[in-house]
Amino acid sequence: MKTLKDLVRNNIWALKPYSCARDEFKGEASVYLDANENPFGAPYNRYPDPRQWALKEKIAKIKGVPASQIMLGNGSDEPIDLIIRIFCEPGVDNMVAIEPTYGMYGVSADINNVEYHRVNLDSNFDIDIDAIFKAVDDNTKVIWLCSPNNPTGNALSRDRIRRIIDGFEGIVVVDEAYIDFSSQPSWLEELPAMPNLIVLQTFSKAWGLASVRCGMAFASTDIIELFNKVKYPYNINLLTQNFVSERINLVDEKNRRVTAILDERPRVMREIGKLPIVEKVYPSDANFVLVKVRDANATYQRLVERGIIVRNRHSVTLCGNCLRITIGTKEENDRLIEELIINN
Ligand SMILES: *Cc1c(COP(=O)(O)O)cnc(C)c1O
């Protein structure tokens, strides 16, 4: 790995971050007259903890990662954008990503005017190692991997991910938004040995809290300090901090729901696979399946007319005539299967 100083944009390395009242005084006191807050209306009259320590300590326990190695964002969208702003000089640096994958990496690259090279997955939707390394040049700062990958649904091979993390001089992001649904272990346990790795997870999928907007980035403390320098000071509001802190106590409930979804997944795949309009049901390590049909636009439209919305991925690279179907409740899945049988 290059040194962090070599990888980080000069202006960010030199940045003196905004120092808020809560940064300057951290202890316990009885009278707070330092932040121009309104004295009435506790607790929401006060600015929240900018580092969200109470919530991070709880996350640290269930993830086995120290709180100092966790950054919380407004969904995963925030760390995705921050990674680009920290490491990539607009118009100069570039990034490499698998294709197809989650669309936000490319959109954030465009917003930041940072070149984004897409490298097609192989015929098993796995990483083409040689092609990835061929796309890397001296100005490549970040490689984006997503495992299990969206929209293909499969986990990328561990060995290939490892070869990229070991062989690349810059930052490797592994987006694990769907890790709770996967048979593969998380890369979090490898974090201590991999200073160039950033792992993204989220409360949006397995935890069922998409509306709450809370994403997690795990990395070395040095990288986390860079996130802290650049993020908005109060990026996670107190309502969200408190709510997620409560919900995180209910791990068993989360696990039961994940199990319910995982129990439904093979049934949905089997039933859909029987239909003559279905050409292929791809393997899934996530809470959705990619399905290749004879005519994705037609099937999509017929389902819309029946009030059932799936994701049409027909226009996505390597996903011609594919629909991405989220696993719902048993009743929702039954509705989908019935409609597909009727319209077959
Ligand atoms: C859904 C999803 C996310 C979650 O994004 P949030 O902003 O945390 O809701 C992240 N990465 C991938 C690949 C996803 O599919």
What does this protein look like?
The structure is a single chain. This protein has 344 residues and is an alpha/beta fold. Helix content is 37%, strand content 16%. It contains 13 helices and eleven strands. Strands 1-7-6-5-4-2-3 form a seven-stranded mixed sheet, sandwiched between helices. Strands 8-9-11-10 form a four-stranded antiparallel sheet, with helices on one face. Helix 5 crosses helix 6 and helix 11 packs parallel to helix 13. The longest helix has 23 residues. The radius of gyration is 22 Å and the shape is globular. It starts with a helix and ends with a helix. The model has no long low-confidence stretch (mean pLDDT 97). The site of pyridoxal-5'-phosphate has 13 residues, from loops. Pyridoxal-5'-phosphate binds next to loops.
Strand order of the largest sheet: 1-7-6-5-4-2-3
Which kinds of small molecule does this entry bind, naming each only once? Answer: pyridoxal-5'-phosphate
In whole angstroms, the N-to-C terminal distance is 53 Å
The assigned structural class equals: alpha/beta
Low confidence ranges? none
User: What is the strand tally?
Assistant: 11
Order of helices and strands: HHHHEHEHEHEHEEEHHHEEHEEH
Average pLDDT level = 97
- Tell me the Rg in angstroms: 22 Å
Shape: globular
* Largest sheet data: 7 strands, mixed
β-strand amount? 15-25%
> Helix share of residues?
25-40%
Number of helical elements: 13
